């Protein structure tokens, strides 16, 4: 659960897609552009959902997690194998669209697996339902990204 | 003999030595060219000043007796060693970098230098001094969306000692843009309840496309205390539709990254007055005047030119009684 909590705080996936949208939009035709924009809107909606679920989940866990100033312990060394959202922007801007989309795909797949596990181990039925609903949204997002990659002629990353 | 600085702690007992003369030498001391007036003791080449304070500051010179050759000049500066400081950090240029400022709680009265060290993920980051502000430095973000904390250590050093303070933060908590710029508010012709407001994102925000800002607009009539608020995403224009006709308004805008950090300070306030029709304006002016034959004031609420010429002509056509009837029909 430490991993999952840290993940709630560290994943900033909308910004990843945002960076994608900014660079990719200019190079594509209308339907591709609209496809990217609707995918981006979906990530904004999912981020909003995730913020709500996070608050409910922390309340469900009780003290000290439900306290106003609670902040999970930060890893202080790179020895931990948590997937990280940290990005060197100049490297990110230099990537091709395919690499960016593939990285988005990977990030959201990791998140989906984590939230599924969270849902599985949650005893509170309403919270379990919310988490599973969120997973459905995430699944849809992964589908959107895959479809986009296929349209653009990119090979889909091998599922882990 | 060269002039050197001697720094001493406030409240301490100070001894000044004249050059490298031996203990049997007799000297005379002067401060800033005059006699030493503060309580003191002279023993050979030494001048003793008990329990010093800032009134003891000055250029002390010693002259060897009996011929009066000057042997030394010492600039005495009374001060304090550094103590703890408050440190704050802010990023108004996200994701490029951030700056940290520190404030001493107690003055030292003597020159004090600051060494700044910033650690992130067990690495020391490069720190640049601010060219203008003495207590500020700048750091570039090595990466964004990092979960590792930043640890800032400021060490104050002067001739009497040193002190360190630290501040740790997470990347997203220090993001605060500068206020929006070039806020412009204009009335809408024939629409007295509207004001069109537009602004620009702060010029210091480096990448508005990848890191969009959202905005908060507040407005109130000059005569009222209570603000009305509107939160806006992305867009840098907004039309207020519930303003009062013919009233002067104050409008301000603030900005925030759409996802992280805090709101900027409010922008510079702009003033704008809603549009009202010429007839209404004339009637208002008329009823404000004590004498009906005087020319109405040229104070025009809107950008359009004040209709002074036309106003004078209208008033000569209508008697006060007729204007009163017109008023009944208008309202």
UniProtKB/TrEMBL annotation, chain A:
Domain of life according to the entry:
Eukaryota
Record localization: Secreted
For the biological process aspect of GO, one term held by this record is: cell surface receptor signaling pathway
Tell me the first and last residues of the signal peptide. 1-27
What are the alphabetically sorted keywords of the record? Answer: Cytokine, Secreted, Signal
Q: Which GO terms describe its cellular component?
A: extracellular space
Concerning InterPro entries, the annotation shows: 4_helix_cytokine-like_core (IPR009079), PRF/CT (IPR010681)
GO molecular-function term, one example from the UniProt record: cytokine activity
In the record, the note on similarity to other proteins reads: Belongs to the IL-6 superfamily.
User: What is the protein name stated in its UniProt record?
Assistant: Cardiotrophin-like cytokine factor 1
Automatic annotation (TrEMBL), chain B:
In this chain the Ig-like domain maps to 1-62
Which keywords does this Swiss-Prot/TrEMBL entry list?
Glycoprotein, Immunoglobulin domain, Repeat, Signal
- Got a GO cellular component term for this one? membrane
Q: Which domain of life is it from?
A: Eukaryota
SMART domains on file: FN3, IG
- Molecular functions (GO terms): cytokine receptor activity
Q: Which PROSITE patterns match?
A: FN3, HEMATOPO_REC_L_F3, IG_LIKE
Question: Where do the Fibronectin type-III domain residues begin and end?
Answer: 81-178, 179-277
Alphabetized InterPro entries for the sequence: FN3_dom, FN3_IL27B_N, FN3_sf, Hematopoietin_rcpt_L_F3_CS, Ig-like_dom, Ig-like_dom_sf, Ig-like_fold, Ig_sub
Q: SUPFAM superfamilies from the xrefs?
A: Fibronectin type III, Immunoglobulin
Q: Which family does it belong to?
A: Belongs to the type I cytokine receptor family. Type 3 subfamily.
Q: What is this protein called?
A: Ciliary neurotrophic factor receptor
Q: Output the lineage of the source organism.
A: Eukaryota, Metazoa, Chordata, Craniata, Vertebrata
């Amino acid at each position: 659960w430490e991993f999952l909590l840290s993940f709630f705080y560290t994943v900033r996936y909308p910004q990843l897609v945002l960076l994608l949208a900014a660079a990719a939009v200019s190079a594509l035709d209308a339907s591709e552009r609209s496809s990217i924009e609707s995918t981006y809107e979906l990530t904004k909606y999912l981020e909003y959902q995730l913020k709500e679920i996070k608050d409910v989940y922390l309340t469900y866990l009780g003290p000290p997690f439900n306290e106003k100033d609670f902040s999970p312990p930060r890893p202080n060394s790179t020895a931990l194998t948590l997937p990280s959202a940290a990005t060197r922007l100049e490297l990110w801007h230099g990537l091709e669209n395919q690499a960016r989309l593939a990285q988005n795909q990977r990030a959201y797949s990791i998140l989906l697996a984590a939230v599924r596990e969270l849902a599985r181990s949650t005893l509170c039925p309403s919270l379990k339902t919310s988490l599973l609903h969120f997973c459905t949204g995430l699944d849809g997002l992964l589908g959107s990204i895959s479809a986009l990659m296929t349209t653009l002629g990119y090979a889909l990353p091998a599922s882990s | 003999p060269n002039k050197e600085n001697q720094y001493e702690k406030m409240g301490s007992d100070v001894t000044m030595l004249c050059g490298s003369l031996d203990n049997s030498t007799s000297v005379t001391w002067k401060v800033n060219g005059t006699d030493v007036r503060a309580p003191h003791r002279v023993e050979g080449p030494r001048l003793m000043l008990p329990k010093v304070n800032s009134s003891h500051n000055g250029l002390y010179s010693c002259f060897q007796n009996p011929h009066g050759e000057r042997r030394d000049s010492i600039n005495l500066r009374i001060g304090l060693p550094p103590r703890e400081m408050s440190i704050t950090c802010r990023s108004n240029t996200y994701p490029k970098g951030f700056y940290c400022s520190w404030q001493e709680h107690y003055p030292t009265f003597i020159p004090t230098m600051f060494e700044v060290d910033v650690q992130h993920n067990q690495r020391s980051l490069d720190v640049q001094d601010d060219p203008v502000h003495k207590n500020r430095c700048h750091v570039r973000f090595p990466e964004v969306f990092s979960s590792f904390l930043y640890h800032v250590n400021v060490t104050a050093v002067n001739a009497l000692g040193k002190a360190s303070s630290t501040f740790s933060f997470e990347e997203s908590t220090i993001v605060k843009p500068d206020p929006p710029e070039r806020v412009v508010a204009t009335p809408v012709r024939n629409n007295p309840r509207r004001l069109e407001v537009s602004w620009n994102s702060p010029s210091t925000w480096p990448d508005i496309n990848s890191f969009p800002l959202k905005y908060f607009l507040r407005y109130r009539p000059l005569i009222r205390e209570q603000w009305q608020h509107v939160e806006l995403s992305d867009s840098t224009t907004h039309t207020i539709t519930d303003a009062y006709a013919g009233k002067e308004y104050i409008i301000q805008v603030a900005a925030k990254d759409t996802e992280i950090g805090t709101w900027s300070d409010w922008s510079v306030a702009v003033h704008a007055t809603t549009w009202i029709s010429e007839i209404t304006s004339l009637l208002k002016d008329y009823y404000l005047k004590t004498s009906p034959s005087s020319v109405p004031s040229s104070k025009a609420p809107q950008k359009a030119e004040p209709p002074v010429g036309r106003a004078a002509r209208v008033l000569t056509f209508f008697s006060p009684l007729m204007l009163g009837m017109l008023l009944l029909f208008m309202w």
